[in-house]
Write a structure and sequence with these properties.
Elements: E1 4-11, E2 14-15, E3 18-19, H1 20-26, E4 32-35, E5 38-42, E6 48-53, E7 58-59, E8 61-65, H2 74-84, E9 87-89
Antiparallel strand pairs: 1-2, 1-8, 1-9, 3-7, 4-5, 5-6, 6-8
Length: about 90
């Protein structure tokens, strides 16, 4: 089964943007960025997930299809993104 998570930026109840470099820095070492808008991420079982992100200096958010297992470095990195931005996770 496949599932996805979504992260969107809001400010004062309106859709907003944040610097893409925040996400890039947080996921450094966790992702293969061969494609600018679809970063591959593998968990300990070799299952490949994908981070979908806008290509540009500021982004509205991103999604992850098939996020990795609970002990993966992706999760603390995601928490860092949420702490540094006005994003919500759903």
């Amino acid at each position: 089964m496949s599932w996805s998570i979504y992260v969107s930026c809001f400010r004062n109840g309106e859709v907003s943007r944040f610097r893409r470099e925040i996400l890039e820095r947080a996921l450094e070492g966790c992702t293969d960025r061969s494609f600018p808008d679809a970063w591959k991420i593998d968990d300990e079982y070799g299952h490949g997930g994908t981070v979908y992100v806008e290509d540009g200096p500021e982004i509205r958010g991103f999604s992850v299809n098939r996020p990795p297992g609970a002990d993966h470095a992706f999760w603390p990195a995601l928490i860092e993104v949420l702490k540094q931005t006005t994003c919500v996770l759903y």
